Task: structure prediction
Amino acid sequence: MGTDSDAIRRPAGPTSFDAHSHLPGAGSSPPDHPRVVCGTREADWAAVLAQAASDGQSIPMLGLHPWFVAEASPDWPRRLEALLRDHPAGVGECGLDFARRDTDRAEQEAAFRLQLRLACVLQRPLAMHVVRAWGRIIELLREEGLPPGTMVHAFTGSPETVRTLQAMGVFLSFSGDLLNSDRFKLRDSLRAVDASHLLLETDGTADLVKVIAAAARLRGVSAGTLAAQTWENGQRCFRGWLS
Result:
């Protein structure tokens, strides 16, 4: 876990928190708000740690995304555990994605279970990617338990799934998909989330100010109120990492 000296401290005045992003691409300007930065494969991990060390605004997360499980080296579990034991970082982005026809579900589940167990043992935050695998992810969480600060990023599930996950203590983060006017089910799910379990994110592509404004409008609150609430939720999800 992060120590008090490691924690990202809230700047003076209003701020916002990006619960899920990735390394900036070429020509990207550096974000001006505290944020989570996730690695998705082995090649990302060192760069994510370097980014966090250099900018003082990033919470690093190291994980193996389900899209990249098949191409991972045989040694990835040992390497991931070693980096997590040596650095204050969370686990993720990891999870299950059953949307692709050619996916090896058993291989994905094995990789996710390993990372979930590692997060539980080390008591690190966990960032999950879930697509068309809600029932199975819930089963695995119930089997293995949840580490402190478990979240689903870019949530796309139903209001019923919202209620199940938040009853388990999972935080639910919504992305720039909220800006798409045809995402009716997603908007219903956003409204179903209890204020204490809601996070917002860019996923590395959206404008956080616009995401906050859209979510606030859909929930019938001011953007300032929602930004403050999601900051407080970020403090609870990433205990010891934000202050």
